[in-house]
Amino acid sequence: AAEGLCTWVRAMKFYHEASKIVKPKLEALSIAEANLEAANKALGAAEARLESCQARLSELQAMFDTQMAEK
Predict the structure, then answer these.
(1) Rounded Cα–Cα distance for residues 71 and 69 (Å)
(2) Is 0.85 topped by the overall pTM?
(3) Which residues contact 30 (CB under 8 A, 6 or more apart)?
(4) DSSP secondary structure string, 1-68?
């Protein structure tokens, strides 16, 4: 019975030591994932704005080309 208890205590000791290493890394991961999600939202907004600017540029370029062809 004592051998089983000793094995359990050693396993808990190793788990505790590993937990002290892994827990801060998991917390850092969750923070990094939140930052990534915010950055992806900002990227999506910037890409949408770029697309609208590209569309406007295409309109203006077409108007310019039309005007230059009339000259």
Answers:
(1) 5
(2) no
(3) none
(4) -HHHHHHHHHHHHHHHHHHHHHHHHHHHHHHHHHHHHHHHHHHHHHHHHHHHHHHHHHHHHHHHHHHH
- The two tokens of residue 36 are 């990534």
Residue range 56-64: mean pLDDT, rounded: 97
Degrees, nearest 5: CA angle 68-70-71: 70
- Give the C-alpha separation, 62 to 57, whole Å: 9
Neighbouring C-alpha atoms within 13 Å toward the C-beta of 46 = 6
User: Which residue has 């990227």 as its token pair?
Assistant: 43
